[in-house]
Amino acid sequence: MQQESIPKDLKPTLLFAMLYNETLELAVQPIVNLHTGKVEAVEILSRAPGGVLFPDEMFRLARQYGVLQQLTLLSCKKLIQSVEILKPFIPKGIFFNMEADVSIETLEQAVKLLDSIGEAQVVLEVTEHMPSGFAWRSFADKEGFAIAMDDLGKGNSNMVELMIMKPHFVKICMEIVVNLHKTGTKIIMIENFKKIGDDLNMQVIAEGIETPEDLKKLREMGIEYGQGYYFSRPCAIDKVPVEDWKRGFGHKIV
């Protein structure tokens, strides 16, 4: 069924059916070392089966109908079931998206589930749909995982939130990265993000790399890690081109 053809009043039913039948799917996108081309981490993305709901819409409905906890924990469960496929690609960690407004109870349950992954570092990538005063860094240090701030430069993911959260990783939003090589203002912004990251001991990752020109500019500025369609679109975990990712993307480094 095409997403556009689904009646609005049917969409909550599709969400509840997905949760009841545990048919949620996970996609994965590689995070690449921009100097070597090696895949050193992956980002995990939750998807409705068959694309019947857009990801943002799925989480919005889950929030609206009070099932964000179930959706979050089901995502954790699905990741645990598939983690063996990812183990060659995660020396820097598995970046797992976490909505910033989940309850403390949900967060604690999620961390407990993800602990079973074992030696792989789990990085909770916090999606800032709303400002959060929660002490993410203190909680992360106490529970023994890392955190990443998603979409720096977009919406609520601003410099004030960065200082509050004190993440281990910070991801620059694709809106700033796309056509970077053409825009002096974007270059200045990323240079400042890089300096802040260095000063605060945060690893900076560029999202939305789509062209060799933008990749080249990021490398010139010393950005070490990135992801985007230039390397790979997100794909279902069971469809990961394992041998290609093992070889890496050195042939695309310019």
Please describe what this structure looks like:
The chain is an alpha/beta fold and 254 residues long. The chain contains 10 helices and 9 strands. The mean pLDDT is 90. It has an 8-stranded mixed barrel, surrounded by 5 helices. Helix 3 (68-86) packs parallel to helix 4.
Task: Specify the structural class.
Answer: alpha/beta
Assembly context of the chains: single chain
Total helix count?
Answer: 10
Number of strands: 9
Spatial arrangement of strands, main beta sheet = 1-2-3-4-5-6-7-8
Helix content: 25-40%
Distance between the termini: 41 Å
As residue ranges, the low-confidence spans are: none
Roughly what fraction of the amino acids lie in strands? 15-25%
Order of helices and strands: HEEHHEHEHEHEHHEHEEH
Radius of gyration, Cα only, in angstroms? 18 Å
Shape: globular
Please describe the biggest sheet, giving its number of strands, its sense, and whether it closes into a barrel: 8 strands, mixed, barrel
The residue-averaged pLDDT reads: 90
List keywords for this structure.
single chain; 254 residues; alpha/beta; 10 helices; globular
